[in-house]
Amino acid sequence: MYHKQIIPYLFLLPLTLLLTACSTSPQYYTPTNEQVQEFLQIHKIEPLTIRDVGEFSTVVLVQTDLSNAYYVLHSTESGEVEHSYLGSNNNAKSVPVSVLNGVIDLNFVSLIINDDELFEAAERVDILFQSGRKVTEEVKSRGVIVPSKLKGIDGEYMEIEIYDKNNQLLKKIGR
């Protein structure tokens, strides 16, 4: 009689293990350069800049006539590239620098230097985060992506400073 009660549970154990193994969340990886380039070509995207951020993501910063935006790309175990998109109205005509904050899981700040004179003179960007940590990034293009900590959260940016090659402050953006 006792065996009759145990036998159904013995069948449930392998079934439970199988279902648990099949229901795990997908594993993501940083896309390869080839995967990123293929994504850009398929979607006809002209990036301002591209940067790996976090443990398994690549951020592509773009600006069109209508929007400032970024794509966050991930590669799956099967090699497919998945993406998310965040955009806002293009405010290039009204502000010298457009700022987009990263998503909560990927703490980063991206900015687009809209003003031609500011861009030509800019050498580096310093970003002060809520945690008190300051990150410096060289300006190589109109788009700049500055990652925060990979582990833990620095919080949102508190201040952005753009400097020229002589270490002169060109622009300060605060909260």
TrEMBL record:
Which keywords has UniProt assigned to this entry? Signal
Please give the superkingdom of this protein's source: Bacteria
Q: Where is the signal peptide?
A: 1-28
Q: What protein is this chain from?
A: DUF5067 domain-containing protein
Q: Which organism is it from?
A: Alkalihalobacterium chitinilyticum
